[in-house]
Specification:
The complex is a heterodimer of chains A (about 70) and B (about 475). With about 70 residues, chain A is an all-alpha fold. Chain A contains two helices and no strands. The radius of gyration of chain A is 17 Å and the shape is flat. With about 475 residues, chain B is an alpha+beta fold. Chain B is built from 17 helices and 17 strands. In chain B, helix 11 runs antiparallel to helix 13. The chains are: A mainly alpha (about 70), B alpha+beta (about 475).
Chain lengths: ~70, ~475
């Protein structure tokens, strides 16, 4: 998931721009053709969700099923 | 009408005893409940549709029955996202309506057991809210203080049950919609194991989490209702048989060998009086033989992210067939959630489902050493109506986030959760969640029944009696 990029340190060349969640949300909202007057609220709500999604990046999720039917407990 | 002799204030167990002994008829009980509804509903707004004629016809039929099913003549309020034949289902929305030709299976089971449907109860718009407030149909008010929220989205069934406008309620719980109003209205509410009670005939919100369950005034009533609701082919699994084999709920039932974990992280985000009430309840259970220990879940702080992502995406998908045409009819709040949910990338939804499995796996491992966990149902008592924020332990939180804070994580776990009253603060009740393994409802009921005598519960809402 995209998240805020860190600023380059001394002597480092700036890397490619990493889009913030707000920028991603704005792009998705614009592409979806959300009616004028709704864009601000939808972009803010979507940015909040994308930030939540970014917070899951710290979990090791490889190999875990994404099925919504939850596993039976042992 | 004297409150003390008002049959509308009886528990199901008490009313059933009176009906079986023919000291009370189903018609008399229904008339008493309808009288209170006529009196109180204009103030509390618990019913969106009252069906007085239909209820009396059902009651007359109940009085003609020769058998004595578990809920014979018991008046119930059905949340208006659940179909009742012959009544409209509005889902608390503006302009959205379906005319139900048949009962949802959960309603059919209540009726088969003799229950009398009084009407359709208030709900947050499309059950997509937690406070019992609705811009289209008006707010549902807390019977302990009509200036305060009652919790939702099963607001109508909760308030009608607490205020004697029904003896029980049927609601849904996706993210706490039974447990939050149960806590704020002083009731017992059960979020059953997903799959335990059928969902057909129910307007869905998010299929990963949706459940149907009862609201009742005491644990014994809740046990009766759940036994009826889960009595079908879908219930023939594992522990359900245990419930049937062990129906007796005794307040002094020993809990020797029962291992309980107090979920510390949820205590820490609750007001100190809620924490004190839960500690007191846990000590009472310890005195009955339970082994009580603190427990922490490493992944608990991810539950909010997982839940919001999954619910937004699934709700958007469910509303997709009519959303384009109906957009202007939604409240801004719900419309924004659905619009944002539609735009979530599929990879995000799938990652959230994977994370949910990680969380469930952590809890399953932790629960190998426990039989159930205890946690607050709400971090505080009912807040005032129409506030946007609340203060908990000196910090300000959005109302919605605060009301969801204790119920959200247990909603992830595909397990049963029971909320039962454990105390009151400034005349307002609050509750405790008992979280068990899948299909361990019978154990949760036992623990809740054992906790009842240890709790200084309030009588039915005095402000209502004096109204």
């Amino acid at each position: 998931m995209t998240g805020p990029g860190s600023a380059p340190g001394p002597g480092e060349r700036p890397g490619p721009h990493v889009q913030t969640t707000s920028e991603v949300a704005a792009r998705l909202t614009q592409a979806a053709g959300i009616p004028a007057g709704r864009e601000v609220a939808v972009t803010a709500a979507l940015a909040e969700l994308l930030a939540l999604a970014a917070s899951l990046d710290e979990l090791a999720l490889e190999g875990i099923s994404p099925a919504f039917d939850p596993p039976r407990w042992p | 009408m004297s409150p003390d002799s008002d049959p509308a204030l009886l528990t199901i167990v008490e009313a059933g005893r009176e009906i079986r002994a023919r000291r009370l008829s189903a018609v008399e009980l229904t008339e008493a409940v309808l009288a209170r509804a006529q009196w109180l509903n204009p103030r509390l707004n618990a019913y969106l549709h009252l069906d007085a004629d239909g209820a009396l016809a059902q009651a007359r039929a109940a009085d003609r029955r020769r058998d004595h099913p578990a809920l014979l003549g018991i008046p119930v309020c059905i949340k208006d996202v659940i179909d009742v034949a012959g009544l409209p289902t509005t889902a608390g929305a503006a302009g959205w309506l379906r005319s139900s030709q048949r009962d949802a299976t959960a309603v059919a089971r209540l009726r088969a057991a003799g229950a009398v449907v009084i009407g359709k109860g208030h709900t947050n718009e499309f059950a997509y809210g937690i406070d019992g407030q609705n811009p289209h149909w008006g707010n549902c008010a807390n019977p302990y203080d009509p200036g305060r929220v009652c919790g939702g989205s099963s607001s109508g069934p909760a308030v009608s049950t607490a205020a004697g406008m029904a003896l029980a309620g049927l609601g849904t719980d996706t993210t706490g919609s039974l447990r939050v109003p149960a806590s704020l209205c002083g009731l017992v509410g059960i979020r059953p194991t997903p799959g335990e009670v059928p969902l057909d005939g129910v307007v869905p919100l998010a299929w990963s989490y949706d459940t149907v369950g009862p609201l009742a005034r005491c644990v014994s009533d809740a046990a009766l209702l759940l036994e009826v609701l889960a009595d079908g082919p879908q219930a023939d699994r594992g522990v359900c048989a245990e419930r049937r084999a062990n129906p007796a709920l005794r307040p002094d039932h020993p809990l020797d060998g029962v291992r309980l974990g107090v979920l510390e992280q949820l205590l820490e985000i609750s007001e100190s009086y809620v924490e004190a009430g839960l500690v007191q309840a846990a000590k009472h259970l310890e005195r009955l033989g339970a082994d009580v220990q603190p427990v922490r879940l490493e992944l608990l702080h991810h539950a909010g992210a997982i839940h919001h992502l999954v619910q937004h995406a699934e709700a958007a998908r469910i509303h997709m067939p009519w959303f384009e045409a109906q957009q202007p009819r939604y409240s801004d709040q719900v419309r924004t959630r659905l619009e944002a949910g539609r735009l979530l990338p599929a990879a995000v939804y799938l990652a959230a489902q994977q994370a949910r499995r990680r969380l469930i796996e952590e809890v399953a491992v932790k629960m190998r050493g426990l039989d159930a966990m205890l946690a607050p149902s709400t971090p505080m008592v009912a807040p005032p109506q129409n506030v946007e924020t609340v203060t908990i332990r000196g910090a300000t939180h959005p109302l919605r986030a605060a009301l969801l804070s204790c119920v959200l994580a247990p909603s992830e776990l595909a397990c049963p959760v029971l909320s039962t009253p454990i105390g009151h603060h400034q005349g307002l009740p609050y509750g405790m969640q008992i979280i068990g393994r899948p299909f361990s409802e019978s154990l949760l009921l036992r623990i809740a029944a054992a906790s009842e005598p240890g709790v200084d519960l309030m009588s039915p809402p005095l402000p209502i009696r004096e109204a």
